[in-house]
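Database export, one record per block. Field names are fixed; values are copied verbatim from the stored entry.
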Amino acid sequence: MSMKKYALIGTGGRAEMFYAAIATDYHDTAELVAFCDLNQTRMNYANTRLKTKYNHPEVPTYKADEFEHMIETEKPDTIIVTTVDRTHHTYIIRAMQAGCNVISEKPMTVDEEKCQQIIDVIKETGKQLRVTFNYRYAPHNSKVRELILDDAIGQVFSVHFEWLLNTEHGADYFRRWHRDKRNSGGLLVHKSTHHFDLVNFWLGTEPDTVYALGGLNFYGRENAEKRGETKFYQRAYGSEIAKNDPFALHMENNEQLRSLYLDAEKEDGYHRDQSVFGDGINIEDTLAVLVQYKSKAVMTYSLNAYMPWEGYRVVFNGSKGRLEVNVVEKSYVNAGGAKSDEGALKGKQLKVFPMFAEPYLVDVEEGVGGHGGGDRVMLNDIFGVPAEDRLKRASSHVDGAKSILTGIAGNISLRTGLPVRVKELVQF
């Protein structure tokens, strides 16, 4: 396999999984040639990590306005995009127009207009886009696809899917840039894209009609005031009040958070540790979605971001029985600890209830590392030599689009109070 060159734009919390993989397990097939970011301090920190933690030479750094100049100079084959969600499309489009393929962190983008622009540039340039859905690769999620593919419960007619984000990880979306819907598309796009992709993948179908309800019920200043809270602060750093707030993030106590964000503030003014009970939050923390798929299956989905535990419950009802999946995940704060903690498992159970036989538990091998072991398998698919995969877990821009379109349609439905036909949003 020939050596491919990669440059990475956006050296925040999502970047290290990619540059660490290139620097260690895949240095025979992949070469990291540059970092690009708005923030020099952050790029310098990424280079320090490369050198001290991964024993890899530092790479040249380019500011975001030198993006095309970086491509011209370093000649990467592929750009890895791990920037703020609302800028994904900008760098995907510019990279392709400059002759590069792209690997993008999920979600591919945040609304239907940007989604259409990405689809159009792929048609124009013939370049490839891969969206990284690590959850597909987790052994328990792959096993669900396998069971459905092998007809364990027949044709699936309905899915009930409940995702719980707890008061550590869930709260984190309300501290940082995600709290502004323009940046992230809200949790229905930024977070649920994983879950909607899983359902598309599990059922081998795509969404047709979406109806959503929800709101901001727990986080935000107004909700805290209603509960009788009287003490408020803007951000945790330097605040006396924050010392007693279990929701506060103290970056100065964590080497990674301090270096990535606190030390980098002087350049761009970005505060990573805002109060989850502050003003300016316009994303929902409580969501319910009803989806009809092209296969005629229906799904009821709920997401709550202030729960006492983290994980999900999903049940599938089919023509030959029922499958119940219960997963408890380890809690984490993005960039605040080991990468392998992200989505790591604490417990899981898959149980099949055949229509006319005894229920049985399904054995699943334990995945190692982040996202239930999915990260490792996915990274090999991207940077190594992919194994033959009957489950077809590698995801293209079409999968990327179809997963966000459920959430984008949900956001339109939240605004209008009406069901939304997905096919009216973008043209493939």
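Remark 1: Residues 64 and 242 are 34 Å apart (CA to CA).
Remark 2: The two ends are 32 Å apart (CA to CA).
End of record.
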